[in-house]
Specification:
This protein is of the alpha/beta class and 586 residues long. The strands form four sheets. Strands 3-2-4-5-7-6 form a six-stranded parallel β-sheet, with helices on both faces. Strands 15-14-16-17-19-18 form a six-stranded parallel β-sheet, sandwiched between helices. A five-stranded parallel β-sheet has the order 10-9-11-12-13, with helices on both faces. It folds into three domains: 170 residues, Thiamin diphosphate (ThDP)-binding fold, Pyr/PP domains (Rossmann fold, 3-Layer(aba) Sandwich); 171 residues, TPP-binding domain (Rossmann fold), CATH 3.40.50; 170 residues, Rossmann fold (3-Layer(aba) Sandwich), CATH 3.40.50.970. The chain has 23 helices and 19 strands.
Length: 586
């Protein structure tokens, strides 16, 4: 579309607000909207009727936000969702907070009652602007149709720039219906919105020196690497200094899962080697991370011997939880590009400083890995959850998109599935939203129609998103839904078992639907399996099916995820397995 500059003689094209909004979305490169219509958005949906932007009709507005996230997380583009006023908008809130916690670029479009009715408790009115203030990176209430193009342009810019996040635009019905001259907007005027992308040259040079001087360096990389498309720069840095590296739950895939320097995920359910390495290192190179409590454990005991280099594009994250000895505010890709050049420049002078100490450090890392490896468990009588996940890992070969719900299956997947590229691992990290798995897979599959996409769910989270089975069928999305069914809210049961004297309160899930009948009711295939010898053939059958597939896998009911750092524990204080019975003497 040609850009037009408005003048007195050429004021732009006269159109209503609904068509203007669609033109704005075209300018931002929007291909698809995940949404659900309602009363005040009817003018917009009427304009959408014959517009080339595609719309995916989900079955619940919360799932529109999750699907937009799946689209955004798998592509790096801004995802778009849409809902009507009142309950439609409030149903988006969980998805918006989820995107906020995980720094996912989403623009939410919500309808609002007519401007003159705002504040009158009109039908389906809610203070969407007020409600979502803390749930978004920024939000707008459109009060004048003439401002709409600028607001939409700024919304997409804010969502996708700097530290990404969700932005909401609340649009009253009369704005949709009004008429004004439309001119594309390409300028940004956000005087209070500062981005620091390049990093301080002196700090970058000092960071390189610290890396060569360290005896026991550890690279701690998170979701910021993936958001910055800095995976190749991260890998180059790790190889230059030959340091062990861990990826947070949000950063999985930033380092290839098969890379010899990659250890695993650290934290509450991280590996023994990753956690011991984080505890014992003398230099922690933190890249695009926020020192989340699920990683650090008891903060006062986290990496107690280490100096910290912290690189992040969000200055508010620097020294928020752990004081940085060397802070660098900047875009991870730009900072690592410069850092790698300095590391190479200094290598002839400093690269041999700590050769013996580095060799000893690697021997220790390998010893920890051998002492308590992350390995799947198998049984001839029951399907172990780890067995299921290891088979999915073999099938995916580090190339499939894997979306998980929240719970034990999420942790086993993070532990045991390898990802050799970024944007293949999609999960709700910071907020931990049950019901995330299926709709996020919906969005990822829509964005990547030729890719194998798994939705790995627990029997609890799956039942929060059953309506989206209809959406998968309607749009021909061949998502492979794998339900790890243990008959419990497994993660809650784990805590009750270990820390509440096994008083299992309201965690048993009875009456799971027959997978074959449930899938069949929506028009596709499903199956339930019970035996280990059935597993691989059932997975192969699911993948061979051209459409969606629901595989309900009955797994060992009382299996728990280990290692585990108890709440309030230090990262090196891991529970490595189930409590052993105490031998009783004669």
């Amino acid at each position: 579309m040609n850009k037009v500059t408005a003048t007195q003689s050429n004021p732009g094209v006269l159109m209503n607000g609904s068509k203007m909004l669609l033109e704005c979305l075209v300018q931002e490169g929007v291909e698809v909207i995940f949404g659900y219509p309602g009363g005040v958005t009817l003018p917009f949906y009427d304009a959408l009727y014959d517009h080339p932007i595609r719309h995916v009709l989900v079955r619940h507005e919360q799932n529109a936000a999750f699907a937009a996230q799946g689209y955004a997380r798998s592509t790096g583009k801004v995802g778009v969702c849409c809902a009507t006023s009142g309950p439609g908008a409030t149903n988006l809130v969980t998805g918006l907070v989820d995107a906020m916690m995980d720094s996912i670029p989403v623009v939410a479009l919500t309808g609002q009652v007519t401007s003159k009715l705002i504040g009158s408790d009109a039908f389906q009115e809610a203070d969407t602007f007020g409600i979502t203030r803390s749930a978004t990176k920024h939000n707008f209430l459109v009060k004048n149709l003439a401002d709409l193009p600028q607001i939409i342009h700024e919304a997409f810019y804010i969502a996708g720039s700097g530290r990404p996040g969700p932005v909401l635009v609340d649009i009253p019905k009369d704005i949709f219906q009004g008429h004004h001259h439309y001119t594309p907007v390409t300028s940004i005027h956000l005087p209070g919105y500062k981005l620091y992308t390049e990093g301080h040259a002196g700090q970058i040079r000092r960071a390189a020196q610290m890396m060569w001087e360290a005896e026991k360096p550890m690279v701690y990389a998170g979701g910021g690497i993936i958001h910055a498309d800095a995976s190749s720069e991260l890998r180059e840095m790790v190889e230059i200094i030959d340091a062990p590296a861990v990826n947070t739950l949000m950063g999985i895939g930033a380092m290839p899962g098969t890379h010899p320097n990659y250890i695993s995920m650290p934290g509450m359910h991280g590996s023994y080697a990753a956690n011991m390495g984080m505890y014992d290192c003398d230099l922690l190179i933190a890249l695009g991370v926020r020192f989340d409590d699920r990683v650090t454990g008891r903060l006062a005991a986290f990496a107690p011997h280490a100096k910290v280099i912290h690189v992040d594009i969000d200055p508010s994250e620097i020294s928020k939880n752990r004081t940085a000895d060397l802070p660098i505010v900047g875009d991870a890709k730009r900072v690592l590009e410069k850092l790698n050049k300095v590391l190479i420049e200094l290598k002839p002078e400093m690269g041999e400083l700590k050769t013996a100490e580095r060799a000893a450090w690697w021997r220790q890392i390998h010893a920890w890995k051998a002492e308590h490896p992350l390995e799947p468990s198998f049984s001839v009588d029951e399907i172990k959850p780890q067995h299921l996940i290891s088979e999915i890992d073999k099938i995916s070969g580090g190339k499939a998109i894997v979306c998980t719900d929240v719970g034990q299956h999420q942790m086993w997947s993070a532990q045991l599935i390898r990802f050799n590229s970024p944007r293949l691992w999609i999960n709700s990290g910071g907020l931990g939203s049950m019901g995330f798995g299926v709709p996020s897979a919906l969005g990822a599959q829509y964005a990547n129609p030729e890719q194998l996409v798994f939705a790995i769910c627990g029997d609890g989270g799956f039942q929060m998103s059953i309506p989206e089975l209809a959406t998968l069928v309607n749009y021909g999305l061949p998502v492979k839904i794998i339900v790890m069914n243990n008959g419990y809210l497994g993660m809650v049961r784990l805590w009750q078992e270990l820390f509440y004297n096994n008083r299992l309160s309201q965690v048993t899930l009875d009456n799971f639907p027959d997978a074959n009948k449930l899938a069949g009711a929506y028009g596709f295939k499903g199956k339930t399996i019970f035996r280990p010898e059935e597993l691989r053939a059932a997975l192969d059958e699911a993948i061979a099916e051209p459409g969606p597939y629901l595989l309900n896998v009955m797994v060992t009911p009382n299996e728990n995820v280990y290692p585990m750092v108890p709440a309030g524990g230090a990262i090196n204080e891991m529970v490595l397995g189930p409590p052993q019975p105490v031998a009783v003497g004669d």
